[in-house]
Amino acid sequence: LFCLYFLQGEKNNGFDVLYHNMKHGQISSKELSDFIRERVTIEETYSRSMSKLAKSASNFSQLGTFAPIWDVFKVSTEKLASCHMELVRKLQELIKEVQKYVDEQAKAHKKTKEEVASTLEAVQNIQSVSQALQKSKENYNSKTLEQERMRKEGATQRDLDKTGVKVKKATEVYKSFVEKYATTKTEFEQKMAETAQKFQDIEESHILHMKEIIQSYSCSVEDTHKQIEELHQEFVNNMENTSVESLIQKLAESKGTGKERPGPIEFEECNVSTVATEAAKPRKRKPFTIPGRRKDKDTDSTESTEVEATNTANGAPPDFYGSIDFQNANVPQVDEEGFCIRPEEEDERRKFHVEIKPVQPNNGTHQHKATIDELKASIGNITLSPSATDDVFVGKLPTFEKRCETPAGTSRGPSPVTLASQDALPIAVAFTESVNAYFKGADPSKCIVKITGDMTLSFPSGIIKIFTSSPSPAVLSFKLKNTSKLEQILPNQHLLHSDSSQSDTNTRDFWLNMPALTAYLRKNSEQNPTSSYYNVDVLKYQVCSNGIQSTPLNLAVYWKCGPTTTDLRVDYRYNPEAMQPHGPLSSVQVLVPVNGGVTNMQSIPNAIWNADQNKSLWKLNDISEKSENEGSGSLRAKFELSDGPSIPATLAVQFFNEGSTLSGVDMELVGSGYRLSLNKKRFASGRYMADC
Question: What pLDDT is stored for residue 157 in this prediction?
Answer without folding.
Answer: 87
